[in-house]
Design brief:
484 residues, mainly beta, Immunoglobulin-like, 4 domains, six-stranded antiparallel beta sheet, 2 helices, 36 strands, 3% helix, elongated
């Protein structure tokens, strides 16, 4: 065992520690070779597999021209082991039996297999299995929200940005970190943990403007990773999903992993991953792009990007559940509780590195428990409630389809702390071409218009009401209908 100073061969394992202030004249961070000061051997005799070796503490003052920041362990194999099979004795990436660890504690257990919760100050030590794990280990040290420690952020204002960051330590293979915001329908953000040692995850923006005009209707999709693209449905939409993993006897690393060679059935329609055109029927429209499945049904549109399989009694891996997309409904509230969720994952067995691709993350192989931080989003203290957007409650149309020639009454109740300046209605046909743009007629808090369907083409139509208050705050309410 040696004490090592920061040098080219080791810096990839310890992270960029920066220059020493007190010993800047002898800093060796840019030298081509590491500088060593031998303090061992400390271990004699043969070591037992997966058993930690704990020796008596020792004290030694190292007087040198270089600063030493980590311990270098060199494990030598038995002479009977041939050079060809020597790499099999060590984790991936450590084929020569060389390991670097920061000088933090002087006991073998703390160096090899202990983690610390920086918030509570509690040390947690395992059995040493993670030290020699092929995948390695990872520990979430700190999370930041808008530049502050996440546990200190309790309230944010409407309109604030939400920017999250983290500090993570890891050994072994690359890891993934995922940030989510609940209950908002915002796509999760991913990043890779690629350096052995301490990694500072750069700040990621989850949303540019926090809102509290919540939706009581959320998406229920257990075991499904999804991205909600549209939610203009007036009633709950249920999408039945059945999926069957296609095992590869030659490559077991692909088992229980969702991929394009699996069999997926949506609402009784089997998905053809090789078909680039739209699939399905008039009620359920399906489109496949690589392994991403886009489903459009009754005004709701959702992207399925991953499916978590469950094992059956026969040993196969399947998924047979449903997705429920509840109707959006604005709620009259001035504050809302939200949760920032941070998770770590291993890579898929088929991935060599993160490679800036979230698809390489194995969402079935999470590291530890997720960190959850609760914040309350509210209007700025002392601010007027007029900063909120108008509340739009759509009463009509109350049917999903109409016959050509049948007039469609559109009626909405729109309220705000200040008077409503205007409510603009835009209707587009199935090709996205605007067929109507008109300001709704006002009767107190009620705004209405009758849409003439004579000479209109059959198909689905999308509509949006944009309400503007006297203080220029805005809200939108979308809906769909079909002409036959």
């Amino acid at each position: 065992m040696n004490c090592g100073a920061v040098g080219a061969p080791s810096i990839g394992y310890t992270g960029a520690l920066g220059k020493s202030t007190g010993y800047s004249q002898c800093d060796c961070i840019n030298l081509p070779d590491e500088k060593l000061s031998k303090v061992g051997p400390l271990l004699t005799g043969k070591l037992k597999q997966n058993v930690l070796e704990d020796n008596k503490a020792f004290h030694k003052v190292v007087d040198d021209d270089y600063r030493f920041d980590h311990l270098k362990f060199v494990l030598r194999t038995d002479r009977k082991i041939t050079p060809k099979i020597k790499p099999n004795c060590f984790p991936t990436g450590f084929d020569d039996g060389v390991f670097y660890f920061p000088i933090i504690d002087k006991t073998a257990r703390d160096i090899a297999d202990c983690t610390v919760d920086y918030i509570s100050g509690v040390y947690s030590c395992g059995s040493g299995a993670g030290f020699f794990s092929r995948k390695g280990t990872a520990q979430l040290i700190e999370v930041t929200i808008n530049g502050e420690k996440a546990e200190n952020v309790k309230e944010l204002n409407i309109g604030d940005k939400l920017i999250v960051g983290a500090k993570v330590t890891k050994t072994g293979n690359d890891k993934c970190i995922r940030f989510k915001l609940s209950p908002d329908s915002i796509e999760p953000k991913y990043d890779g943990i690629t350096l052995n040692g301490t990694n500072d995850v750069p700040p990621l923006e989850l949303t540019g403007s926090l809102k509290v005009a919540g939706r009581t209707g959320q998406v229920v999709a257990p075991g499904i990773t999804y991205s909600l693209k549209s939610q203009t449905n007036q009633e709950p939409v249920v999408i039945n999903v059945r999926a069957f993993d296609n095992p590869d006897p030659k490559d077991k690393s692909n088992n229980r992993t969702y991929s394009i060679d699996d069999r997926v059935i949506i609402d009784g329609i089997e998905v053809d991953f090789k078909e680039e055109k739209e699939q399905g029927n008039e009620k359920t429209k399906i489109k496949a792009s690589d392994k991403t499945i886009t489903v459009e049904k009754e005004g709701a549109k959702i992207e399925i990007t991953n499916i978590d399989y469950a094992s059956t009694q026969t040993g196969s891996y399947e998924y047979q559940r449903s997705i429920t997309i509840n109707a959006p409904q604005q709620v009259s509230q001035e504050s809302q509780e939200k949760k920032v969720i941070v998770e770590l994952f291993h890579l898929k067995d088929s991935a060599d590195s993160y490679a800036n691709n979230p698809d390489n993350c194995d969402l079935n192989d999470r590291i530890g428990e997720p960190r959850t931080y609760t914040i309350r989003v509210m209007q700025e203290k002392g601010a007027d409630a007029s900063k909120l957007g108008p509340l739009i409650q759509l009463t009509k149309p109350n049917q999903k389809s109409y016959n050509i020639g049948q007039p469609i009454q559109i009626l909405a109740r729109i309220t705000h702390k200040t008077p409503i300046e205007k409510a603009l209605l835009v209707i587009k046909d199935k090709n996205g071409i605007k067929v109507e743009e008109i300001e709704l007629q006002r009767d107190g808090d009620n705004f209405e218009y009758t849409f003439d369907t004579n000479a209109k083409e059959a198909g689905k139509y999308s509509a949006n009401i944009k309400a503007t208050s006297r203080v220029e705050t805005e809200s939108n309410k979308g809906f769909e209908f079909e002409l036959k």
